[in-house]
Amino acid sequence: MAKNKRIAAARSKVTHGQAYGLDEAISLVKGNATAKFDETVEISLNLGIDPRHADQMVRGFVSLPNGTGKTLRVGVFARGAKAEEATAAGADVVGAEDLMEKVQAGEIEFDRCIATPDMMALVGRLGKILGPRGLMPNPKLGTVTMDVKGAITAAKSGQVEYRAEKAGIVHAGIGKASFDEAKLIENARAFIDAVQKARPTGAKGTYLKKIALASTMGPGVQVDTSAFAG
């Protein structure tokens, strides 16, 4: 009953169908994050694209200026000096055939997967396992690279991945409810800007159709897109 009252109270503060300015939307989301844990603040962008067409796919990484508040586990496929570099840079798990065997056994102990180019023949065998989880290293995303240290540092410092789903929606966590409003606003702007810059050549008409914010257990708050039109 207490949970239902909490949800009802949170929803009563948000006017259905109203689009708020980003600052006010962040304030509402923070105020409605009343769960007993530090809720994640999530952003969703509804884009005017059809991801089924290759020229309308939107995918990439963005480094949030204030981090995500989450510790990302990084796995690296590398050998020799590059494996040592990965370990020194703070990778959580590093290996080659041994790491491949772990993944095949269902032991996936990482949230981001990085590989050196020479390891892709090995990693390619794991496509059916890593692919559906969004963990397959990709040179276009900077996760197939010889700059192992740089990729690990980026991942650990608040870099988030975004990828359009079938309905053309892109979403990601942009921080914790405990963050200052100014930091959440800055992160939100950085994410929106990155997705706008990633507009594919095949996108026609209105690209940024809707923006919504919510905490893990809180109601969604619609954001006015006019400030981001362009």
TrEMBL record:
The keyword Ribosomal protein applies. The keyword Transmembrane does not apply. SUPFAM superfamilies: Ribosomal protein L1. GO terms for cellular component: cytosolic large ribosomal subunit. Keywords: Repressor, Ribonucleoprotein, Ribosomal protein, RNA-binding, rRNA-binding, Translation regulation, tRNA-binding. Gene3D superfamilies: 3.30.190.20, 3.40.50.790. GO terms for biological process: regulation of translation; translation. PROSITE patterns: RIBOSOMAL_L1 (PS01199). GO terms for molecular function: rRNA binding; structural constituent of ribosome; tRNA binding. Pfam families: Ribosomal_L1 (PF00687). Part of the 50S ribosomal subunit. Belongs to the universal ribosomal protein uL1 family. Binds directly to 23S rRNA. The L1 stalk is quite mobile in the ribosome, and is involved in E site tRNA release. This is Large ribosomal subunit protein uL1. It comes from Acetobacter malorum. The gene is rplA.
